[in-house]
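Action item from last meeting closed. Structure (867 res):
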């Protein structure tokens, strides 16, 4: 306990004293005073040790109006309040508790619990938001059957939605009406949802493979109906894929998705009623980029997939979060890989893991996929729990194969349907189902840090024998000095001098060091390691000539891409050293050759080529350095972009011209790939000089889709030209009323590398369209600046740090979860030079000095500052 914030430890888990068999909820909706009545059928839990334990009903920010047990008012000291919870003693083995309480959804700026967004009601209950609606054992291992009645004004709230199936509707006269929803599936309170207001539905149908019809609806604000087509298509594809690959059928008569403009996260898998940040639902070609379309497809799929992995089988406690999130991310990644280019999807997912999760594992926020303790679980919806968790599932999938994995998942469901379980239960089911003992993979859940993998090899020409020695090592992380070796599947091949595979194998590195022998190898081979990125590790020390060979020849597209990426990284790190010594920079011939070859062969797979052309990000390079030098990183990367643009100008021009098909906008993989390659070419041409800027201006004026408009505006926003101001003004004028598009306007300026970026973002913070209460807007301006504009956020003056701290301090009292998430860019503070580190520490201390700081921000900042 510190500063009044208690921490929860995984090993302290206790089963609940009471189970809830049924819940009947009644809502009388009013923005200032909503009345919630609940009737709980409670039963003592035989699994709880203390037979006299009181009934604990969590609560937060509630006004209690009445509490009764078996029809009698609870009075005196039978019920006490403890940190907002209602603790009732003397409850019999079975009984009925009635509660009446009041909440004010209009005043709820935390966006957790029941809140109003632009006149409509929404809920967000994961992880602990249900206790902000009514008193309840708000923990995932209490699964109950819910029936919910919603009463509201028909004029304000013609639409009344909840989990499950619609059971009844009733007109109450006097302009009031009521709907009753029944959810037949037991669920934890975090999956409860209610949506009410003036929304319209886009409808469709799906028939499950056993023939049951499902009514699908996406609920949006009037005027957005035309922007739901892609989300609906994605949903139907996801439903069909889950049946085909896992045999998972949908289990209710209706499936509803509601879009909301104010939302802390991406989306939420509430049973039968997913609630989505509108960013992951709405798309029109002129308002959404290709990346937005792709994100919608995967988030829709992700939330849908939770219906089985998360909802039917849920987490025993919040430490098991990756049980549902890692597994469901793995499933949505597999789904997307099956929809189009598996290779491009895989390398993008790896890029994302390296950009967000590897740095987390390297810094003060490092934690195991299954954390050991927390103050606010909301702070653990992290790339480690999600993306690294997905990689751990993927490793097991790789080892046991799709058929073994399917048998494991079948067994998981057979054993645990309608239960709240642990990660051990999951790994045991996969092991028993596949017949392969995977228990050692539990160490991947338990140990923080990213293993480093190195290889040493030798070839005996006489014996025709090749020997490969693999070693692993994990650096210490906070609180964990000693690291154990982990089981690392290394998918690999041996490539002959002619560029063809001699052998392909799956190695399992179990120890710190292990030797693998290959017989009958006719010529000295080049090893291709970690094909498909078979484990979330850092492969180090591959020689440059080998990287170039692999980048040109490997049969595995991931290794081909990654070798080019690692090669470029090595070159850039060398150049950074040269820059720091004051030497002049020169373009490496190998890099130029590789980029030229990529451009020449680009038409075979434009999407892949676009990825191969994009240099490692500044943040990725930073993560490779012991002491981060943001200015040198930026100077080197910009130098390279300019030099490559000039040297390859003819090929870039040709690609740009060839790919301008002028045909109708299509959102398929091939079209997306062409746009990506064309815009990558535009970026290089603009880095090379004025010609590219003029092209960008022309593209900005003529483009009819947001992908091309945004790419052009990004180029212009980084310049100091009159075109910049004109384009930004035009964009704002056209899209002022569309919040999601206006977010792009903020983000593009926030991530522009021009030198006055800090003043720009300060100005934008005061812009009438900036709104601290809208998380998307905050992410677009403050989040984008601090996390995606490395060189300007880390301005030596400290102005970027002050700006971020000001924003966190202003936001924390309104929305602590969102404020806490903004603190991440400070996490690497110790890896910067002493001056910057001191300035960052000063700002973090200023944040900690604020009276009444939320537990969310308190936990993040104290963890980042360290002991
Ligand atoms: N469970 C959500 C998901 O699918 C994320 C989320 C967490 C949303 C907490 C809201 C609050 O990943
Ligand atoms: Zn999820």
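Sequence:
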């Amino acid at each position: 306990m510190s500063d009044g914030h208690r921490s929860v430890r995984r090993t302290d888990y206790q089963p609940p004293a009471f189970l809830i068999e049924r819940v009947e909820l009644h809502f009388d909706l009013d923005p200032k005073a909503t009345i919630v009545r609940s009737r709980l059928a409670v039963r003592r839990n035989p699994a709880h040790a203390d037979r006299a334990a009181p009934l604990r009903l969590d609560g937060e920010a509630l006004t209690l109006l009445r509490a009764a047990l078996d029809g009698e008012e609870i009075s005196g000291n039978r019920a006490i309040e403890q940190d907002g919870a209602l603790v009732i003693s003397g409850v019999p083995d079975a009984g009925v508790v009635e509660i009446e309480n009041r909440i004010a959804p209009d005043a709820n700026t935390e966006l957790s619990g029941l809140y109003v967004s632009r006149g409509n009601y929404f809920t967000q209950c994961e992880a602990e938001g249900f206790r902000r609606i009514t008193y309840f054992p708000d923990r995932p291992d209490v699964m109950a059957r819910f029936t919910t009645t919603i009463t509201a004004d028909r004029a304000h709230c013609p639409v009344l939605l909840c989990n499950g199936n619609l059971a009844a509707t009733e007109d109450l006269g006097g302009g009031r009406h009521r709907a009753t929803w029944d959810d037949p599936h037991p669920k934890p309170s975090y999956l409860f949802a209610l949506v009410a207001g003036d929304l319209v539905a886009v409808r469709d149908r799906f028939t499950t493979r056993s023939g049951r019809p499902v009514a699908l609806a996406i609920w949006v604000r009037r005027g957005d109906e035309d922007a739901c087509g892609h989300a609906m298509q994605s949903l139907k594809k996801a439903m069909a894929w889950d049946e085909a690959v896992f045999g998972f059928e949908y289990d209710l008569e209706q499936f509803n998705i509601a879009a909301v403009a104010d939302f802390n996260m991406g989306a939420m898998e509430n049973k039968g009623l997913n609630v989505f940040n509108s960013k992951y639902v709405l798309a029109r070609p002129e308002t959404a980029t290709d990346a937005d379309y792709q994100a919608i497809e995967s988030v829709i799929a992700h939330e849908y997939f939770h219906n089985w992995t998360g909802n039917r089988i849920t987490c025993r406690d919040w430490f098991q979060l990756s049980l549902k999130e890692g597994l469901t991310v793995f499933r949505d990644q597999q789904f997307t890989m099956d929809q189009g280019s598996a290779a491009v999807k895989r390398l993008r997912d790896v890029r994302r893991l390296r950009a967000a999760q590897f740095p987390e594992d390297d810094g003060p926020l490092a934690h195991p996929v299954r954390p050991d303790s927390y103050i606010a679980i909301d702070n653990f919806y992290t790339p480690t729990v999600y993306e690294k968790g997905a990689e751990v599932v993927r490793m097991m999938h790789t080892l046991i194969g799709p058929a073994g994995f399917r048998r494991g998942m079948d067994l998981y469901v057979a054993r645990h349907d309608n239960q709240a379980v642990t990660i051990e239960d999951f790994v045991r089911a996969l092991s028993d189902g596949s017949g392969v003992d995977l228990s050692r993979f539990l160490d991947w859940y338990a140990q923080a840090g990213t293993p480093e993998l190195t290889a040493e090899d030798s070839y005996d020409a006489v014996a025709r024998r090749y020997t490969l020695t693999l070693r692993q090592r994990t650096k210490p992380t906070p609180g964990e000095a000693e690291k154990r070796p982990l089981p690392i599947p290394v998918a690999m091949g041996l490539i002959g001098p002619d560029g063809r595979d001699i052998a392909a194998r799956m190695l399992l590195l179990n120890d710190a060091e292990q030797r693998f022998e290959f017989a009958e190898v006719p010529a000295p081979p080049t090893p291709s390691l970690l094909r498909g990125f078979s484990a979330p590790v850092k492969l180090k020390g591959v020689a440059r000539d080998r990287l170039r060979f692999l980048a040109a020849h490997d049969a595995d597209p991931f290794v081909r891409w990654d070798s080019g990426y690692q090669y470029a990284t090595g070159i850039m790190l060398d150049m950074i050293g040269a820059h720091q010594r004051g030497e002049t920079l020169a373009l490496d011939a190998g890099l130029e050759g590789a980029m030229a070859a990529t451009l020449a062969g680009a038409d075979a797979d434009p999407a892949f080529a676009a990825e191969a052309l994009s240099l490692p990000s500044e943040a990725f390079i930073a993560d490779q350095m012991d002491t981060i030098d943001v200015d040198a990183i930026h100077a080197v990367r910009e130098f390279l972009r300019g030099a490559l643009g000039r040297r390859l100008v003819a090929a870039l021009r040709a690609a740009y011209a060839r790919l301008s098909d002028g045909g109708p906008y299509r959102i398929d993989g091939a079209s997306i790939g062409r746009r990506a390659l064309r815009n990558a070419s535009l970026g290089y041409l603009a880095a090379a000089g004025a010609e590219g800027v003029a092209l960008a201006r022309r593209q900005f004026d003529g483009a009819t889709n947001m992908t091309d408009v945004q790419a052009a505006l990004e180029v212009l926003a980084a310049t100091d030209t009159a075109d910049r101001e004109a384009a930004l003004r035009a964009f704002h004028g056209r899209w002022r009323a569309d919040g999601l598009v206006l977010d792009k306007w903020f983000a593009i300026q926030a991530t522009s590398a021009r030198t006055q970026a800090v003043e720009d973002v300060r100005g934008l913070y005061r812009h009438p369209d900036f709104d601290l209460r809208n998380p998307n807007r905050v992410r677009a301006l403050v989040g984008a600046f601090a996390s995606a504009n490395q060189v300007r956020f880390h301005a030596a003056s400290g102005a970027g740090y002050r700006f971020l701290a000001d924003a966190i301090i202003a936001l924390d009292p309104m929305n602590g979860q969102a404020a806490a998430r903004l603190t991440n860019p400070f996490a690497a503070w110790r890896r910067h030079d002493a001056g910057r580190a001191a300035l960052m520490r000063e700002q973090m201390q200023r944040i900690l000095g604020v009276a009444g700081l939320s537990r969310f921000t308190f936990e993040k900042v104290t963890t980042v500052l360290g002991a």
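Note appended to the action item: The pocket of phenylalanine (ligand 1) is lined by residues 124, 126-127, 265, 267-269, 302-303, 306, 325, 381 (CB under 6 Å).
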